[in-house]
Amino acid sequence: MTEKKKYANDAVIVISNEKVAEDHYVLTLGEPMMAAEAEPGQFFQVRLKGEGAPFLPRPFSLYDWHVDDSGQKIAIKLLYKVVGKGTAALSKLSHGDSVAVTGPLGNSFSCPEAGKTIIIAAGGIGIAAFFAFVRQCIEAGFPAKDIHLLYGARCNSLLVEYQRFAALGAQVSVITDDGSCGVKGTVLDLIKEHIASGSREDFRIYACGPAAMERAIARYCQETGTAGELSLEARMICGVGVCNSCAVEVKSDKAPGGWDYKLVCRDGPVFSAASLYLT
Questions:
Q1: Which of 105, 155, 261, 268 sits at a 20 to 30 Å CA gap from 12?
Q2: What pTM value is reported for the model?
Q3: Domain 117-233 carries which CATH code?
Q4: Which CATH number fits domain 234-272+275-279: 2.10.240, 3.30.1360, 2.60.40, 1.10.3470?
């Protein structure tokens, strides 16, 4: 298999940094080579520069591409939520500023087989991993009506950007822990409801969100035999498999106890649900 290219650029120009909801932004970075190589599911390490900037980079999933008038991919879009000092500083960037970026990193989602129904299970900011994927599937000829975004969060204010998926033609259902938008419940509740309408062999689940949500979905996939892929969220320092800060337990027939470690940054972030070791 051909090794995927990655680039490092210490002066990537900010094209825009648009606030799309409270504490949520879409950062557009002008880097044509990274944009051309990036695939849905991969991520980028972004590091702020200047005096007082956080020393460590932050990982962000590819959210979308920015294209020129000829359709050429010339920039990447990253959807992020302000959760600490680093992302708060990131939200202050404006057109013409620059950041250091390495990527694209990690692996990507696999293409769904023809005739399958795609379930996109997103929790909170986990939705950031999927817009480029849905766009790519539709552009490749996959019927938009067979793509279902099941999107959940604690409350209405934490649901962002799902209208863009509907604009592409995807079927969208939202759910919240407190019932402030959509119905009250969890994303797993929506998955069970959708899959109850057909054979499990007809569905393929792609998930990203909080660890507890992903663990529940992985367990559901394993117990029911439903095919699924999860983009795991983890704290990363290096992003290239050197620091071992993002280890995850996976099944292994060769290791004592039947499990071993892999790294989210190097071996993921996308893992099959069947491969994860759940206790």
A1: 268
A2: 0.94
A3: 3.40.50.80
A4: 2.10.240
